[in-house]
Design brief:
344 residues, alpha/beta, Peroxisomal Thiolase, Chain A, domain 1, five-stranded mixed sheet, 15 strands, binds oxa(dethia)-CoA
Length: 344
């Protein structure tokens, strides 16, 4: 027997329709963290650009924050929950290895029967999930995809670790990706370098922790200087390639929105790429810290809400982190949610 399998066809193009965020209410200034790491507000601001961050409450987690951000993204996109065929959650801080967070988020949003799964690509997770969603819409495997980046890093940090305790923070951001008449999500440029998997890692493993109850519970560890050296120099060519593939020149950009890893990394990339003065640069890290997979959508929200960028503006997104992994794409910015609050 032989049979022809039906071909699938999707939308001609994809776009981000609407964006929603969830910023935890609890603001944590640098001074609240310095005594545990023998640091100072001045050192943290100078070395990272961070003035404050937000930590979620004990009852909040990536699911509750993902639901809030998702609800706001759906509201901003103007579609109904019944139109969403897939939910992709980018996170490294869901505290269960199984089941994934996305099916629970879908359920709580009344998105019934949709495909739902998590992706783990560290701080580059949102840009990976966005690329998957755009390809799914264009290929025809989903009509609309809810993409969420959500992290509760405060659960996974050692508050006495000088390399991480002041950097990482909590939050969530989400977009609805759907069909478009014109290209609004450019080709992704992505990759990884597993030879540097040690640079940002969980330590110890759950296996080591189980076999030796005297060792500290697992936490995120970072070889900050190694990542600091890698990111600006390796990511600038990736950013240029994303622009080339999209057929967009740097002076045609309205915004440059890198993962909010460290203000000095953002500034070094902007210098290396020769970002023109008229292009808005995301500097959300000052108030939000490094929220890993949530940082790019949170930074988009801040730029649009603050009037520095607008829905429909052309932006270069680039994210990088644990893996090491990275992803970049040129996009048209989505509408943001203006009728619901940004805090839980
Ligand atoms: O989001 C995923 C990707 N992550 C990143 O991209 C993060 C990349 N890395 C970084 O952001 C930076 O490496 C850090 C902000 C984490 C650290 O900054 P740094 O400039 O690389 O500091 P360092 O580790 O080279 O340390 C410089 C000095 C040292 O003192 P001496 O030897 O010069 O006297 C450290 O002991 O600063 C000292 N130091 C601190 N001082 C106060 C290290 N950490 C601290 C601290 N507070 N927390």
């Amino acid at each position: 027997m032989s049979a022809d399998i039906a071909a699938i066809t999707g939308a001609a193009h994809a776009q981000m329709l609407g964006l929603g965020v969830c910023r935890p209410r609890r603001v944590v200034p640098n001074v609240d963290l310095t005594s545990a790491i023998d640091s100072s507000d001045e050192w943290i601001q100078t070395r990272s650009g961070i003035r404050q961050r937000r930590f979620a409450e004990a009852a909040e987690n990536v699911i509750t924050m993902g639901v809030s951000a998702g609800q706001r993204a759906i509201s901003a996109s103007g579609i109904g929950v019944g139109d969403i065929d897939c939910v992709i959650m980018a996170t490294s801080t869901h505290l269960y290895q199984t089941p994934a967070a996305a099916p629970q988020v879908a359920h709580q949003l009344n998105i019934r029967g949709a495909a739902a799964f998590d992706v783990s690509a560290g701080c580059a997770g949102f840009c990976h999930a966005l690329a998957l969603a755009a390809d799914m819409v264009r290929a025809g495997s989903a009509g609309h995809v809810l993409v969420i980046g959500a992290e509760k890093l405060s659960d996974n940090m050692d508050p006495t670790d000088r390399s991480t305790a002041f950097i990482f923070a909590d939050g969530a951001g989400a977009v609805v990706v759907g069909p478009s008449r014109t290209p609004k999500i450019g080709p992704v440029v992505w990759g990884s370098d597993g030879s540097q998997s040690h640079a940002i890692r969980q330590e110890p493993s759950w296996g080591e922790f189980r076999s030796d109850p005297t060792i500290e519970r697992p936490a995120v560890r970072m070889e900050g200087t190694a990542v600091f050296r890698w990111a600006p120099f390796t990511m600038a060519p990736v950013a240029r390639k994303a622009l080339d593939k999209a057929g967009v020149t740097i002076d045609q950009l309205d915004a440059f929105i890198p993962h909010q890893a460290n203000m000095r990394i953002t500034e070094a990339m902007a210098r290396s790429l020769k970002i023109p003065a008229h292009v808005a640069i995301a500097r959300d890290i000052t108030e939000a810290g490094n929220t890993s997979a949530a940082s790019v959508p949170l930074a988009i929200d801040t730029l649009i809400r603050g009037g520095e960028a607008r829905a429909g503006g052309i932006a270069l997104l680039i994210a990088f982190g644990a893996g090491l992994s990275y992803a970049a794409q040129v996009v048209a910015l989505p509408e943001i949610c203006s009728d619901l609050p940004v805090h839980n």
